[in-house]
Amino acid sequence: MALEFTDDNFEELVLNSNKPALVDFWAEWCGPCRMVGPLVDELSKEYEETAVIGKVNVDENPNIAAKYGIRSIPTILFIKNGEVADKSVGAVAKDQLASKLDGLM
Asked: What is the pTM of this model?
């Protein structure tokens, strides 16, 4: 299961991590988000040793979404060494997400 990133734990779990991170910005009311969510959960199991993978509920954690200029969801940020290295907007296939994540390794 993917981690739940919040305004309170984001810096510690994502920005200060020595592993690359995949961060899924989503909301419960978002249809495409419900399609991407299970893919993010699968990736979190497959990459649990090599990456930090989790989700940010934009309704509950508006500060992180605002900091990264998230205007449409789902948006997935790929973060390495505390910096955004890549980005994906909208519903995308699992292999596309895995490929971007692999590129950060």
From this structure: 0.95
Per-residue model confidence as pLDDT tens digits over 49-73 = 999 999 999 999 999 999 999 999 9
Residues recognised as catalytic: 30, 33
CATH 3.90.1150.10 for domain 3-102? no
Domain-by-domain residue ranges, the chain? 3-102
The two three-digit tokens of residue 30, written as one number = 């978002």
Q: Which residue type does 11 have?
A: E
Beta strands in the chain (DSSP E): 3-4, 21-26, 52-57, 75-80, 83-89
| 86: β partners | 78
Q: How many CB atoms lie within 10 A of CB 64?
A: 22
Residues 6 or more apart whose CB falls under 8 angstroms from that of 62 comprise 7
Residue 70 neighbours by CB distance under 10 Å: 20
| Complete edge-to-edge strand list for the sheet that includes strand 75-80 | 3-4, 52-57, 21-26, 75-80, 83-89
